[in-house]
Amino acid sequence: MGESGANPLTAGKITGCYGIKGWVKIHSFTDPEENLFRFGKWQLKRRGSLETIEFDAWKRHGKGMVAHITGVDDRTLAESFKGLEIVVDGDSLPTLDEGDFYWHQLQGLQVWGREPDTSDERVLLGEVDYLIETGANDVVVVKATEGSIDERERLIPYLPDDTVVRVSLEEGVMEVDWYLEE
């Protein structure tokens, strides 16, 4: 079994088999999708533990990606990898410019909004559950948590310096310009 890095990050998933020579279909969570293959160190999450693997070839196929796992040369063995998450060391991600964040850094942040008609009164809306890419702009899905103002799930456009006023990873907080009625 492989050892996980200090900051394991799910970067993709094996969704099925491709052909009879051990190739697998991959759904990459990176943007662009090819970035998944730039890490050079991959692990698969299987039954709660991580096992190190190596991709020795990959290519675009239709709307997705296919890859060959070193040592997996037939479809039967490739089938055993279906549904497994591909994990990489998050510490190996490139450093972003000030004010830019990876999606995984935003998940779990407390989201604070404002009461209508008051500029100072902040209220807890919930926490970032996940993000949706819509094409026009990304959307933050905020789920209710203990202490939040109500039990509503909210979809808030991720527009820095507009709806998203401030993000502090150190404080675990995202402040949004979003009223309760919206």
Strand content: over 45%
CATH class of the largest domain: Mainly Beta
CATH topology of the largest domain: Elongation Factor Tu (Ef-tu), domain 3
Count of runs of 4 or more consecutive helical residues: 2
* Widest sheet, order of strands: 4-3-7-1-2-6-5
CATH superfamily of the largest domain: RimM
- Please tell me the total number of domains: 2
Kindly state the percentage of residues in helix: under 10%
**Strand count, sense and closure of the main sheet?**
7 strands, antiparallel
Helix/strand-derived category reads mainly beta
- Quick check: average pLDDT? 85
- Contiguous low-pLDDT stretches (5 residues minimum) are 1-5
Total beta-strand segments: 13
Radius of gyration (CA) equals: 20 Å
Task: State the shape.
Answer: elongated
User: Helices and strands, in N-to-C order?
Assistant: EEEEEEHEHEEEEEE
Cα separation of the termini? 49 Å
What can be said about this structure in brief?
With 182 residues, the chain is mainly beta.
